[in-house]
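Researcher: Sequence recovery benchmark, item below. Answer with residues only.
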């Protein structure tokens, strides 16, 4: 595919792309969550799973966050990264993990879900506003093997695609060109559902960190964050955008204490759906404009950190399982042909 960057353009602000050691082919990212009517119940359910991430073959990076979904339920999510996919496989197949997931109740007020993806580096790009040595944030950038280098491939529409190596030779066309949700009210409660995820769905985790900010904290919280939140709300409630699920997380410490960090996790039917929203929809254009108004201020160097990970996942690289979850959770709104169901309901 042709690159879209304008020749000779100098980005308005610096940015840093992730660099992996030679020979690295993939990494793993997993969302492991408890869903409940109250924040307390969701936190208790997540805490009951915490021990799984401390044993052998545990994740290299473990973040946590919480959000309220479109059905009004509270979700607490463990965000786990394995630098080595083989270590993840050993963890996933271990007795304690298999027993814990298999033993989750499929009745009652509490549900659980997990979405795991093995991410080929050729189908991923990671971009930070600050070098990891200067501003430590959440995400895979915390891993010691992941370096960063300043890149000119940003600050223009289409830059994210250009940073994904596979986009130079592949069209990345989706198996699900149109996302039309099929919601069955109550039809997944009391059941275990596995969803076969279509190829070339796109995942973005985009994050904001104001924990070390003194110059731009107030401006970010007053002028940028509300605009960002409106954009995520739009995606979560407008499937015609091609967004399958959007989650606006408050990041937390391991014990559930809120941090001065937030992130959005969103699944799109394709990379093109994500890019179309970014370059043409009012809600994202407002986010983009508010960021550059803040970044162009005269207060001094930008001290709020921003980063994102974008991945286009090939067929078979995503697993999605739901236990007693409401039917608008994650990939559950996909058509019946993508779903296999077991359970007592």
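Model:
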């Amino acid at each position: 595919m042709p690159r879209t960057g304008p020749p000779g353009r100098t980005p308005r602000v610096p940015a840093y792309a992730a660099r992996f050691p030679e020979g690295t082919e993939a990494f793993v990212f997993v969302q492991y969550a408890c869903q409940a009517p109250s924040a307390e119940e969701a936190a208790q359910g997540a805490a009951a799973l915490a021990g799984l991430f401390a044993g052998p073959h545990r994740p290299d990076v473990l973040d946590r966050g919480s959000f309220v979904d479109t059905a009004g339920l509270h979700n607490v999510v463990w965000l786990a990264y394995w630098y080595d996919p083989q270590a993840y496989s050993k963890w996933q197949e271990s007795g304690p993990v298999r027993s814990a997931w298999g033993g989750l109740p499929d009745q009652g007020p509490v549900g659980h879900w997990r979405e795991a993806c093995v991410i080929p580096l050729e189908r991923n790009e990671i971009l930070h506003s600050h070098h990891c040595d200067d501003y430590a944030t959440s995400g895979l950038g915390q891993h010691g093997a992941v370096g960063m280098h300043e890149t000119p491939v940003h600050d223009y529409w289409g830059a994210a695609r250009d940073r994904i190596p596979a986009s130079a030779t592949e069209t990345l066309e989706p198996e699900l060109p149109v996302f039309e949700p099929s919601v069955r009210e109550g039809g997944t409660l009391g059941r275990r559902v596995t969803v076969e995820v279509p190829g070339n769905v796109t995942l973005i985790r985009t994050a904001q960190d104001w924990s070390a900010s003194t110059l731009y904290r107030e401006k970010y919280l007053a002028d940028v964050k509300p605009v960002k939140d409106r954009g995520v709300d739009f995606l979560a409630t407008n499937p015609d955008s091609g967004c399958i699920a959007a989650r606006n997380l408050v990041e937390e410490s391991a014990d559930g204490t809120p941090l001065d960090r937030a992130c959005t996790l969103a699944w799109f039917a394709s990379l093109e759906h994500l890019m179309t929203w970014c370059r043409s929809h009012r809600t994202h254009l407002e986010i983009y404009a508010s960021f550059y108004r803040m970044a162009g201020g005269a207060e001094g160097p930008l001290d709020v950190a921003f980063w994102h990970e974008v991945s286009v996942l090939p067929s078979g690289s995503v697993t999605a399982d739901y236990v007693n979850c409401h039917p608008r959770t994650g990939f559950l709104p996909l058509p019946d042909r993508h779903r296999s169901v077991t359970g007592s309901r």
